[in-house]
Design brief:
DUF1631; coiled coil; DUF1631 domain-containing protein; single chain; 4% strand; 763 residues; five-stranded antiparallel beta sheet; 5 strands
């Protein structure tokens, strides 16, 4: 029996209207007017972006020919745009008007509807048309899936208007398929190249199809107001369950939605998986906050709280607005503005639901409010996280709306570390941690993070598999970057290791020579040969043969003999002994100096000066000028490339590594616990910050080698230098814990504070 309070003009699913009747015709006109007005706005908006898109592509074109194709396309679009727009809108209007008669004609004659794009037709089209067909098929499929809820309702209500004809997604005259077909037909007015047409199809997807939810909501609202199926519902099931299909009954959809609400467990987890202590704590803290003195309660007679579908729909509108703002250039004030947006998302969400409903609800359900608050706290943490550079904070903070949608659709997001959405955000934060403008001069990492953020904002509706796809894509990008960095890192480590070996060998050679010179007052010639030429030969011997080799022992023995040869030879025995030493000294010098890049002529000049010196030592007659030149001259026949290793004990002491500091300071203890792979932030100038990874700790010197994300050296520090930088605040160790885990710990800490403290924090 019909309820007396039910309006008499309500049309149920079992009733049918004739589109040729007065009422049916009036409703069809309303739908046509709504569609025409909305699509006019959308198609205009789309064409406003075509010029910029083609101009950008022309600037980036690989050659002049490609550039000219894009410029030609721009001119063609400007000239033909009015005709394309008019053709598209006319075709849509005609499809709406003629749908009923065409359908009945096809049914009577037995002719089937045209094959959908992308089926058998593909084998009959040319390559260009095949490419066009595939592009259109892809965007139809994506948008039919995305718009399941609103499209289902439009299908059912139009079915009533068209006299009970069964309408599905592919036959709906304002569905993604029909609109795409109409636009494809209109595009035949353009003679542009296929590459230009494909760009326009992409923009049609982004600016027309992506906004069809607004059109469908307006059509549904118009028909509900006219009494066509006002009680029809089609809900998205909660908790990550499969969405109800296009043919689901309202009762089944209601049951699924009710089951989701009945879960009742905030952040519910799969059966058989133990709840973590952290999540249990969060549930308790949110519950305590709701029951506290500040808790608000729904007043009697208040508006019905938003359903999951309304939340998702309102979030989609806000998300499309965020996608537009994401295209704007980054400004220094963006972090501050985003912080305000993050904190006030709940208010924006209720306001958007109000604009879609026509009346603003005062609050949302308990489970949805907790989810909104938790996601809000997560993104507040991101904007305050010192682990992330400011530029990356701003990029990642724009993901709040997609992540809130994901959390409403699937409560397991916060419960499982391996949830794709959670892994994606953790991996994005991990990649961003090592970012700096200096290490990313080619913008590869920045552009990759931005492209992932853009795609989530533009493409994510309610298909959670997008997170897994983007996670895989990011991982592949990181793997390639890591392999490149590891090669560079290996070269840096090998170079540093080689340099340290050289420094160690130089110090050892200097010690051997200076300790033997001791207090001996050697002539400049002998001192120069030992500290420059022979010291370099000692270094080379250590590096090539090692300190335990016979070659090294012979080189040290020569040092002793060479110094002994400077002692005065006053007696006959002393002169005889000196004469016996000289051939060995000459042979050793010739062999050693030839090994350290002395030219034969330089060796001969040096030995000629030594002959003069030894003749004088042996008491043989030597011109006074020659003796004076050997004993007093500071200019030696030694190439400038042969520099002294160390000319005094004081100089050697300055070159020695500092003694290891005591481990009793907190900073030295922290330094001693650092492991390769740990990231630090260094203040390298008044306004310059560099992020670097500890790559290698030298087993010889104990120095810490740091590289950037490309594997290039940033700095190397002795332990005590690093400890001093940590104490001064010019160096800071970055947390290696995953972003989500750190955020949840911080949220628990914040919720555990007294209510007054928590409230004051947010003011």
């Amino acid at each position: 029996m019909k309820d007396a309070s039910e309006p008499s003009n309500i049309v149920s699913l079992s009733q049918r209207l004739d589109p040729s009747s007065e009422r049916g015709g009036a409703l069809l006109n309303n739908v046509r007017d709504v569609a025409g007005r909305r699509l006019q706005i959308l198609i205009n908006g789309m064409f406003e972006h075509v010029d910029d898109a083609l101009f950008d592509l022309a600037e980036k074109a690989e050659n002049n020919a490609a550039q000219m194709h894009y410029f030609d396309g721009m001119r063609e679009v400007r000239k033909r745009r009015p005709i394309v727009e008019r053709s598209f809108l006319t075709q849509v209007s005609r499809d709406l008007s003629d749908f009923s008669s065409n359908y009945r004609s096809n049914s009577t004659t037995g002719s089937s509807s045209p094959l959908p794009i992308g089926s058998v037709e593909l084998s009959l089209v040319a390559d260009n048309e095949l490419e066009e067909s595939l592009a259109i098929t892809s965007m139809i499929g994506k948008n039919e899936t995305r718009l399941t809820r609103d499209l289902f309702a439009v299908n059912q209500r139009l079915s009533v208007i068209y006299g009970g004809i069964q309408i599905d997604d592919s036959s709906n005259p304002v569905g993604p398929s029909a609109l795409s077909q109409a636009f494809r037909q209109a595009m035949r007015e353009l003679s542009a190249e296929m590459r230009v047409k494909l760009i326009i199809y992409k923009l049609f997807d982004r600016y027309v199809l992506a906004s069809l939810d607004e059109l469908y909501q307006e059509i549904n609202a118009e028909l509900i107001k006219a009494g066509v199926l006002p009680q029809l519902r089609h809900e998205v099931t909660r908790g990550g369950a499969a969405r109800a299909g296009g043919n689901a009954t309202p009762a089944a959809a209601d049951a699924a939605a009710g089951a989701g609400q009945a879960e009742g467990a905030f952040l519910s987890e799969d059966e058989g998986v133990a709840s973590s202590e952290l999540l249990q704590t969060l549930r308790t803290l949110f519950s305590a906050r709701r029951s506290g003195p500040e808790a608000t309660h729904l007043p009697a007679g208040a508006l019905q709280m938003p359903s999951a579908n309304e939340l998702i729909g309102a979030l989609s509108v806000l998300q499309s607005q965020a996608a537009i703002s994401q295209q704007m250039p980054l400004r220094s004030s963006d972090a501050i503005e985003l912080a305000g947006e993050v904190q006030h998302l709940k208010e924006h969400l209720l306001a958007q639901i109000g604009s879609l409903r026509g009346e603003r609800p005062s609050q949302v359900s308990t489970i949805d409010e907790d989810t909104i608050d938790l996601v809000g706290m997560l993104f507040e943490f991101i904007l305050e996280d010192r682990n992330l550079p400011t530029e990356m904070q701003v990029l990642l903070a724009r993901l709040q709306i997609p992540y809130l949608k994901a959390a409403i659709l699937d409560r397991k997001l916060f419960a499982h570390r391996q949830h794709p959405a959670r892994r994606l955000l953790d991996n994005l934060a991990d990649a961003a941690k090592g970012w700096s403008a200096e290490s990313d001069r080619d913008h590869r990492l920045h552009d990759k993070v931005k492209s992932i953020v853009d795609r989530l904002l533009q493409d994510f509706d309610d298909d959670l598999t997008i997170f897994e796809r983007l996670c895989t894509e990011l991982q592949e990008f990181q793997d390639i970057s890591r392999r490149r960095a590891e090669l560079a890192e290996q070269r840096v480590a090998e170079s540093t290791r080689g340099r340290e070996k050289l420094e160690q060998a130089r110090r050892r050679a200097a010690r051997e020579i200076l300790s033997r010179i001791g207090e001996h007052a050697l002539p400049p010639l002998i001192h120069g040969i030992l500290t420059r030429a022979w010291a370099n030969y000692l270094v080379l011997t250590i590096l090539r043969q090692g300190e335990e080799s016979s070659e090294f022992r012979d080189a040290v023995r020569f040092t002793n003999d060479f110094i002994d040869s400077t002692k005065p030879a006053r007696t006959l025995d002393e002169r005889r002994a000196l004469r016996q030493m000289l051939p060995g000294i000459e042979r050793a010098l010739r062999r050693g100096l030839a090994n350290v890049a002395f030219q034969e002529s330089d060796i001969d000049r040096l030995l000629a000066q030594l002959h003069t010196y030894y003749r004088h030592q042996l008491g043989e007659p030597v011109p006074e000028a020659e003796v004076h030149a050997v004993e007093e001259s500071t200019t030696l026949p030694i190439p400038e490339s042969i520099q002294p290793i160390a000319e005094s004990e004081a100089e050697l002491a300055r070159s020695e590594p500092e003694a290891e500091a005591a481990l009793d300071t907190p900073e030295m203890l922290l330094v001693s616990e650092l492991k390769p792979g740990t990231w630090l932030e260094f203040v390298t100038g008044p306004e310059t910050i560099e992020r670097a990874k500890l790559s290698w700790i030298s087993p010889m010197s104990g120095r810490y080698l740091f590289v950037n994300r490309r594997g290039l050296k940033v700095a190397d520090h002795a332990p005590q230098e690093l400890a001093a930088a940590l104490a001064a605040g010019t160096a800071r160790v970055l947390d290696s814990t995953a972003l989500f885990d750190r955020a949840l710990d911080a949220i628990v800490g914040r919720l555990s504070q007294p209510a007054t403290a928590t409230a004051s924090d947010t003011e």
